[in-house]
Amino acid sequence: YHPEFWVDFKVFGSLGLTLLFMVAQAIYLMRHITPESAEEQSKP
Question: How far apart are the C-alpha atoms of 21 and 33, rounded to whole Å?
Fold first, then answer.
């Protein structure tokens, strides 16, 4: 591979894939996290 391609991939490709993974993981986890009840949230 050419050095320019590798640098572009490492800078933009890796960052983009990491952000995409984070968003997908957050959506997946939000489906499985149960909200706490109001009583539990009001306790100190």
Answer: 18
> DSSP for 1-44?
--HHHHHHIIIIIHHHHHHHHHHHHHHHHHHHPPPPPHHHHH--
Per-residue pLDDT of the chain (44 residues; tens, 9 = 90+): 799 999 988 888 999 999 999 999 999 999 888 776 555 666 66
- Each as own residue / partner, the long-range contacts of residues 29-33 (CB below 8 Å, 24 or more positions apart, any chain) are none
